[in-house]
Amino acid sequence: MARRAEAAGPGFGVIDAPLVSGIGPLLIVELLTLGLGAGFLAGLLGIGGGMLLVPFLTLIIAARGVPPALAVKMAIATSMATILFTSLSSLRAHHRHGAVRWPLVRGLAPGIVLGGLMSGAGVFALLKGQGLAVVFAVFVGFSALQMLRDRKPAPHRQMPGWAGQMGAGGTIGLVSGLVGAGGAFMSVPFMLWCNVPLRHAVGTSAALGFPIALSATAGYVIGGWSLPPALPGAVGYLYLPALFTIAAASVLMAPLGARTAHRIDVQSLRRLFALLLMALAATMLWRVFA
């Protein structure tokens, strides 16, 4: 029997959401499969898996009676929280290959944390789910086009100074918190634009995934604390059964993806990244306007 859940905030009002009782084997299989794929991509491309998780988690959560607008928000928040686990596993593998540029991490991380907190605790709660889906698709699609163009940056261009890195990090953290991704869809193209080699950009992006996820997840918890659960096991915008199941599977696969990234052609990696981003952007737009 359906229970009524009242969710305060723009885009919700009163929600008639049938709450499922318990977690069935089908849901576990879906989440494990999604986690394995997300973990591999997190290691391979340094993306934290978020761009794969958000579209599919939206489908999984909405299929269990949650209104689409709320399902998008829960998918984004849960996806970002899984990056707390996958980023550490991926980071370890990339660090072993010497692919993490720690000075860049130290320069970008403060802005990322500030942007992530602002996004998760403020802007995220104010935007409607449909608006967040459009933001996700637009930024992901733009990043993919930039990578497919394969334009060579000016050879003299380097990473900006402290203020520039603070601003870039703040933008990456803010947008990442809105779309539930680890930031690679912005940080990798940005670092490539500044003549950072692709493998180093991917490895450094993996290291930046943790501060992005930590700050944005803290913001989601603060912003959604007063919301009633839309599903059993949900805490505000976080869907804990999905979080822990996906995280466990992702951590197992992230090292394999990272090892693969250091064995394949750089241009193939670039094209794979771009095509994946375009496919996921199209998926989110289809969900919004279909």
TrEMBL record:
Q: Which InterPro entries match?
A: TM_pro_TauE-like
Indicate where this protein resides in the cell: Cell membrane; Membrane
Sorted alphabetically, which keywords does the UniProt record give?
A: Cell membrane, Membrane, Transmembrane, Transmembrane helix
Which region is the signal sequence?
Answer: none
Pfam families, sorted? TauE (PF01925)
Per the record, its GO cellular-component terms are: plasma membrane
Whether Cytoplasm counts among this entry's keywords is no
Transmembrane parts of this sequence: 12-34, 40-63, 70-88, 108-127, 132-148, 168-194, 206-225, 237-257, 269-289
Indicate how the chain sits in the lipid bilayer.
Multi-pass membrane protein
Indicate yes or no for the key word Ubl conjugation: no
> In terms of domain of life, where is this protein from?
Bacteria
Q: Which family does it belong to?
A: Belongs to the 4-toluene sulfonate uptake permease (TSUP) (TC 2.A.102) family.
What name appears for this protein in its UniProt entry? Probable membrane transporter protein
The organism named in the record is Rubrivivax albus
